[in-house]
Amino acid sequence: MIEGSEAEEFYYELWPKDNSEEWVERFGSRPYKVKWRQVGHSNDITELRSLMTSTEWHVFSSEQLKQFEKQKVGFIKPTYTILLLSLFLLARIKLPILILFGSLYSLFDKIGRENNATNGEKRIFETAEPTSTVISLEDIHTEQETVKRPRDELEAKRTPLDKAHQEAINNLKDEVTAKRKALDKAHQEAAKKAKRTALEKAQQEAAKRVKDEEKAKRKALDKAHQEAIKKVKDEAKTKRKTLNKAQKKATRKLKDEARAKRKACNRAEKDEKKAKKTALEKAQQEAAKRVKDEEKVKRKALDKAYQEAINNLKDEVTAKRKALDKAHQEAAKRLKDSRIR
Fold first, then answer.
1. Where is the sequence biased in composition, kind Basic and acidic residues (predicted)?
2. Long-range CB pairs of 166-170, under 8 A, 24+ apart, other chains included
3. Burial degree of 102 (CB within 10 A; 0-12, 13-18, 19+)
């Protein structure tokens, strides 16, 4: 599976890196160091030269600079045409801008050198004073040698520099080709990775859809199962309620029957106890009556005997009192008789 970081970190190199230090190490130093910035105007040609050439390439005479300034106007229009074409090709084939402007500079320099040489020859012929109407072959040859000598010297000086510059451009082209191949390979790998990512994403989405469908089916089955369980529970609850109600009713009936039986038994026991109590009380009353009668008889007999004893005692007391009264009377009479005497 492709990691997201590799796909996110992959970018096309739309703007080249600053390879000026590497250029100086390989092809010599420069008179001054400039900061890499966008070069898109004609007044930046000198800075572009300082980036693309060595110090020896900047040795120009004042005459050559003047000639360059004069000839610069002559190829402004094709320069802008080539510049626009290069920018269009840059957007199409994604060439590094450093190599593009290097190639443009070499083309502009070549055109400038050819124009300078041609203008120099024309200027020599134009400035030469006509001494005579007939010019000998020696004069022409001498003038040609005079014109050719500085040009050959200049070409001899520039040939090694042009060769080194061309080698540097070729090396840079090779590097650009290698980089382009690497970028194409990376782009193809990125496209493959993107396709693989899209395929894996589609597979993941399909798997997710299948999982979602299975989840929905499982939820529906779980819901139906829960509803069936709830229905069975409700039916069981209803049956349990009915059974409990019938059981409570039967229990209540049994309790009522047991209570009625217990009441009947209690009533019978109470009646039996009451009958026994009544019989016992009656027997007790009869026994008490018999005891009372016996006691009454005994009391009557005792009263009768007591009365008889009292009567006897009274009779005895009366007799004794009478005897005492009689004896007293007799004693009183004798006392009286004795007093009288």
1. 196-237, 266-296
2. 166/106, 168/23, 168/26, 168/27, 169/99, 169/102, 169/103, 169/106
3. buried
Give the C-alpha separation, 285 to 279, whole Å: 9
User: What's the pTM?
Assistant: 0.24
pLDDT tens sequence across 51-94? 555 444 444 444 455 555 555 544 445 555 666 665 655 555 55
**Inter-CA distances, 43 with 40, 64, 158, 283, Å:** 9, 18, 24, 158
SS3 content of the chain, % helix, strand, coil (to 5): 85, 0, 15
User: Which candidate, 133, 102, 130, 113, places its Cα nearest to that of 27?
Assistant: 102
Domain ranges of the chain: 6-128+135-208
Distance CA 136, CA 234 (A): 134
Q: Tens digits of per-residue pLDDT, 140-158?
A: 666 666 666 666 666 666 6
Sign of the C-alpha dihedral computed for residues 76, 81, 86 and 88 taken in this order: positive
Structure tokens at 277: 């109590």
Name the strand (E) or helix (H) holding 4.
Answer: helix 4-8
